[in-house]
Protein: DUF1080 domain-containing protein
Amino acid sequence: MSIKKCFYSLSLPYEGGLWIVAMMLVGVMTGCVRYNVAEPLNRFNSPEKGVYEGTELAVSAGDTWFAEGDYTNFVLAGEALTEPDAEAAILFHTDGESGYEVLLRNGAIDGTRKTGSLSTVRNLYRSLAEDGEWFDFEIAVRGKNIAVAINGTDVVCYTEPARPYRVEAYAKRLLSHGQVAVRGERGKVSLRNLRMTRLKDDAVNETDTMPVVDEQKDAVIRFQQRNFPVIDYHVHLKGGLTKEMAHAMSMNYGINYGVAPNAGEGGVGRMLANDDEVYAYFEEVKDMPFLRGVQGEGRKWTATFSREALGVFDYLFTDAMTIVDHKGRLSRIYRPEEVHYDGITKERYMDHLVDQTVKILTNEPADIFANPTYVPDDMNPDYATYWTDARVDRVLDVLRKYQIALEINARYKIPSFDIIRKAKERGIKFTFGTNNVDADFGRLEYCLEAVERCGLTVEDMWFPSMSVRRERPVVIYNKWD
Structure:
């Protein structure tokens, strides 16, 4: 029963007084607010287009439709369909200016915010939905918690802290109460079968178990407010980090994770050994709320895996932490026991390391150069001495030639800011990455500092839509027994 229908005629004797009539009206109205029951949301008003009633609503750029009703705690569910390059926003707790927005925009991973984003607070950069196909969505507000799910998968779980960080442009992006609205941004987006469930004041999200972020001290929320993509492309499920933990951490911290196994041999953590294992892993993760990456590990991976198998992933990265040393031995230089100088100076060893790096980047079709400029532990105290301008130039030249992105690595805090600035001057693109060893790997602090210290902008960042690796030939440049 709608609230309007609660105002039926009451045949009451006047002797009871107007106060009694008023109190009975309040009682009737209160009784008509039904909780925990899904009801159709099918009547909308537009300042320009009037009233719409129906189960399917289409919005185009410039359209704004307000649903009837004022809501605090609720679950809004429905289906959406986006045309290519179309975008719309679902507003809630709004009067047209206040409240939050959930975006509906699909397409390639190109740095634009994608479906499910809690706009400017928890931006997402890969969509779990496709243009031209109806997909399910759900938006829930329970107290201070906002949850968003796409096709049954949670993509946002944000708890508004007592002191949210908001720049002036988004000062009203706060929880309170208000209307639900749909606004067209570009192209055409359709919604159907919208259902609204009111929740009581004491409703809680039982899955919201992570500690609330202190936004007054948090760097990530500041980047979100700038709509600067915060993506960690280099996360491994190892050291106790499970898919479920990574999922919860990503939503809580506001960092998009690219989860990647190793394809090859010699690494740590999950290793893929052949094309069949690559395809099986992809099927396992394709519907999860992560970017899908894979790391070429060791120096034999280009001969082990087909380009077609690795091509199903959003991106591919490798590093120069495994080299063929000057004696022809496969050496993992992050393991001191495998670093052998054999009478040559460290300067000569460094020259060989740069030679190997150039050879790897020239012949292996990777999108991202990860753990860049890493040197063995005993050389690291003199990192700046070993990475001379000439050596840096050789590596940057090959990155630019093959359009390979340079990872800013949070774990090792490399490359140096000086090298990052030189790469920016050459027009080389950047990614953020951690290369974690366990579940406690921070929040990209070094990467975000590098953005500020080196003057990086969104235009300096690399996204999978820029990948050219599928066009590069695979060269078997090492000869193995």
